[in-house]
UniProtKB/TrEMBL annotation, chain B:
TM regions (residue ranges): 44-62, 100-118, 125-145, 151-171, 198-221, 252-271, 306-326, 333-351
One protein family per Pfam: BPD_transp_2
InterPro entries given in the database record: ABC_transp_permease
Keyword Ribosomal protein applies: no
The protein, known as: ABC transporter permease
Organism: Ruegeria haliotis
Entry membrane topology: Multi-pass membrane protein
Keywords: Cell membrane, Membrane, Transmembrane, Transmembrane helix
Cellular localisation: Cell membrane
Taxonomy, superkingdom: Bacteria
Keyword Thylakoid: no
């Protein structure tokens, strides 16, 4: 794979639900090491296109290439097995379980030898050590105990754990769906820093967001989705937020596809 | 102007609050907060305290009549059936479900074991295996209806309770297999009733089975991925699914295991009462739910420990025997149990507020 091969490339993706076309011959591209923001009006289909990329929906037409290789995901678990992590808006955590339990949910580490093989015992120390290391790397280790229940954390802390979980296991890229939507000003700031930190580690990020200031602050490129397809991709340095909103809503003609 | 004057301090308050929240510090403290936290981490602590308290009270009132190896082991023998069924019930309730068919599965399994032996002359071990298999199968049916057809567990098991109980009466023709016949021809059916004594205390295989079962399930729930998945599914099935947990497989395993454990309870029931009676164990579903609730397992799923259910069952046993030894009307037992149920749920609600 050469350096210019996109991490994700979607070509002519179509998804129909009965008479409704959620994705209408849309393209998609995520490049190495970038934060790509996906913006669009409600109902434009920005969630649909991202779902198609991570296997949550199976497109009717078109193809998806990950690092140049064609893939056919049938579930998000397929995508996860390839090193694609998703941070969901609703966080996908079990509030009553601990931070360590949540980080390893669905991919627990078992002990070596008899205890692990026959009694299927979890390797708690290894899991806790790993979780602590990952949280520390992202500067989140003011947590009291890795064994405290997730429900005892604030919204921002939970989001932090979700991002840390994604960053810990992602080898290809991370999708984040409205990661700051439910957070206060200070907590949003922390999460935006985390996102940039994760990019700093070389993991590209697809960021779905409604929040223009956040998008313009962290994104390297902005994918504008309108009426089920990619309208254009813009460089946030060349356009203002009102331009972006104008493209999104159709108030302004998009630039030619040479931008960004 | 007054508007801005009002909103400014409010905004500042919000901003500074956000700042403290963003730090990973536990700001909930004080005695009550600590207690809440402790109970949150150890959900079976409340029933344990109640159990020890009840034993002390009855011990003080009754002296050695209560604190004797005989009385203590009698309680264990009396709660063994409910204890085993409560273990099954706990698993289902941890997944935010409920199993009203536990008693019916238990009785039907015992009837299968008895009738297969006496009606068809099948060797006892094979008849027992058939009983265990039927219990597991009914559990699987429950699980499939809950997980795949997405019907509410309450409705599924309410229906299954009636179906299994009716099948039980139809199949057995309401016939009881007498204890003497079993003793003479198929003593293995009464295996769980086998008694042995350790220093004046009499144990039965059924009691030991209950204790071992609770121990094994405690281990599995705490130290295996399966156990974590059971909690995660009960907590928030969608979140569990998104985290990569196979929710269907987890639910199926829980309901099938519940059916299997109930079938074992059916076998233990033969050991306890000696005979195979299709009319026995009618209250097992309500009694098991009582034990689970008093044991501090949340009916909303994902919270509690199976050890709590054992304590819950023992609390009921201690109250029943203690009050009987005191010569009180049996209705006092029910009254106190009723109070305990409501108190237990109130405590659960309080613990669940921990993040608020």
């Amino acid at each position: 794979m050469s350096d210019t091969t996109p991490v994700v490339q979607g070509r002519g993706i179509v998804k129909r639900y009965g008479h409704v076309t959620a994705i209408d011959h849309s393209d998609f591209e995520l490049r190495r090491g970038e934060i790509l923001a996906v913006i669009g009006d409600n109902g434009a289909g920005k969630s649909s296109i991202v779902k198609a990329i991570c296997g949550a929906t199976i497109p009717d037409e078109g193809e998806i290439l990950i690092e140049g290789k064609k893939v056919n995901f049938t579930s998000p678990i397929d995508a996860r097995n390839m090193g694609i992590e998703i941070v969901y808006q609703q966080l996908a955590m079990s509030p009553a379980l601990s931070i360590a339990d949540n980080m390893f949910m669905g991919r627990e580490i078992r002990k070596q030898g008899f205890m692990g093989k026959y009694l299927r015992q979890l390797d708690r120390p290894a899991m806790e050590k790993f979780a602590r290391k990952k949280l520390t790397e992202l500067g989140l280790m003011t947590v009291q105990s890795i064994n405290q229940a997730v429900e005892t954390l604030s919204g921002g802390q939970r989001q932090g754990v979700a991002v840390a979980r994604a960053a810990a296991f992602a080898t290809k890229f991370i999708i984040m769906d409205e990661p700051t939507a439910a957070l206060g000003v200070k907590e949003s700031r922390k999460v935006l820093e985390l996102i940039q930190d994760v990019r700093g580690r070389g993991i590209p990020i697809i960021l779905i967001s409604h929040n223009m200031p956040h998008v313009f602050e962290v994104a390297d490129r902005i994918h504008v989705h309108r009426l089920g397809k990619r309208l254009c991709t813009i460089d946030p340095k060349d356009y203002t937020m009102s331009d972006a909103v104008a493209f999104m809503t159709g108030a302004k003609e998009p630039p030619k596809e040479d931008a960004a | 102007m007054s508007e801005t004057n009002q909103s400014t301090p409010e905004f500042e308050a919000a901003a500074s609050r956000a700042e403290t929240v963003a730090e990973f510090e536990d700001h909930r403290r004080g005695v009550l907060g600590k207690l809440q936290h402790l109970l949150h981490v150890n959900p079976s602590l409340v029933p344990l305290i109640v159990l020890v308290g009840a034993m002390l009270v009855f011990g003080l009132l009754l002296g050695s009549k209560f604190f004797s190896p005989f009385a203590m082991t009698l309680i264990l023998q009396q709660v063994q059936i409910v204890g085993i069924v409560a273990a099954a019930q706990s698993l289902v309730i941890l997944t935010a479900g409920i199993d009203l068919s536990v008693g019916a599965i238990m009785v039907f399994s015992s009837v299968i074991m008895g009738q297969f032996t006496f009606r068809y002359g099948i060797p006892v071990p094979i008849a027992v295996m058939c009983g265990l298999a039927v219990g597991t199968l009914i559990g699987a049916l429950n699980g499939w209806l809950v997980s795949r057809v997405k019907l509410p567990p309450f409705i599924v098991t309410l229906g299954m309770w009636q179906i299994v109980l009716a099948t039980n009466f139809l199949y057995s023709a309401n016939e009881t297999i007498r204890s003497q016949d079993i003793e003479a021809n198929a003593p293995f059916l009464q295996f769980f009733g086998t008694k042995f004594s350790i220093g004046g205390a009499t144990f039965t295989v059924g009691v030991i089975f209950m204790l071992v079962l609770i121990f094994v399930l405690t281990y599995a729930l705490k130290h295996t991925a399966w156990g974590r998945h059971v909690y995660a599914v009960g907590d928030d099935p969608e979140a569990a699914e998104l985290s990569g947990v196979n929710v269907h497989k987890t639910l199926m395993s829980v309901y099938m295991l519940s059916g299997l454990i109930c079938a074992f309870a059916g076998w233990a029931l033969i050991g306890r009462i000696g005979s195979v009676s299709p009319t026995s164990g009618q209250l097992a579903n309500i009694e098991s739910i009582t034990a689970v609730v008093i044991g501090g397992i949340s009916l909303f799923g994902g919270r509690g420990s199976i050890l709590g259910s054992l304590f819950g069952a023992l609390i009921v046993g201690v109250f029943t025997l203690g009050l009987r030894l005191l010569g009180a009307d049996a209705q006092w037992t029910f009254l106190l149990i009723g109070l305990l149920i409501i108190a237990a749920v109130a405590v659960d609600q309080w613990i669940r507020k921990v993040s608020g």
